[in-house]
Design brief:
The chain is an all-alpha fold. Helix content is 63%, strand content 0%. The longest helix is centred in the middle third of the chain and has 22 residues. The protein is globular and about 50 Å long. The termini are close together.
Length: 186
């Protein structure tokens, strides 16, 4: 029963995104996104992953988070909680530091790109066969998502994508051998 806890937490986070989206019709919650280099914008580090601009934005992030998140949470088990928290905080702080001024950055895609960065780099940094296979599979399945790191669309927070991706790569770089194992040990 305990081994399903990370998956349940992921599903709870996705359900929370949908509930918050519903609340956004009544309460202007978008203001609580990441507002670069402002003190009040720091709350967005924790709030932004739950806020979405519109239904298509929410659906896209839900599908991506389900696909990438279920694999990540299943493989990493309980370690996924700490890794996720690190990705959200580091990625959010980087977004807060480097993003365009006079903008609000919302959505779970920074976190999703963080999971992708972690998954792609864990094999590179750990050089363990199971992690290399894990990274290779993620690159094969989600390598096309790397286009989202480029500033192609002015309405998409590529800064959030890059920041999340870098945060995930940093988490992979500094993951100890006990954290980086691409197998379930709990």
């Amino acid at each position: 029963m305990k081994t399903h806890m990370p998956t349940k937490a992921l599903l709870l986070a996705i359900a929370t995104m949908w509930i918050v989206y519903g609340l956004q019709y009544f309460i202007p919650l978008e203001q609580f996104g990441i507002v670069p280099r402002t003190f009040s914008g720091l709350i967005g580090i924790f709030a932004a992953p739950f806020l979405h601009a519109n239904l298509l934005h929410l659906i896209a992030n839900t599908i991506s988070l389900l696909l990438i998140g279920l694999v990540f949470f299943t493989v990493q088990g309980r370690k996924s909680f700490v890794i996720s928290a690190e990705i959200i905080v580091i990625g959010g702080l980087l977004t807060w530091l480097i993003a365009r001024p006079d903008s609000i950055h919302i959505g779970a895609s920074g976190y999703i790109y963080g999971l992708l960065g972690y998954a792609l780099f864990i094999g590179v940094f750990q050089r363990k066969l199971s992690n290399i296979l894990f990274s290779s599979a993620f690159f094969f399945l989600y390598g096309g998502a790397l286009w989202g790191l480029l500033p192609i669309n002015p309405f998409v927070s590529w800064e959030g994508h890059v920041s999340g991706f870098v945060a995930g790569a940093l988490c992979a770089k500094f993951a100890g051998p006990e954290r980086a194992t691409a197998s379930r040990s709990d």
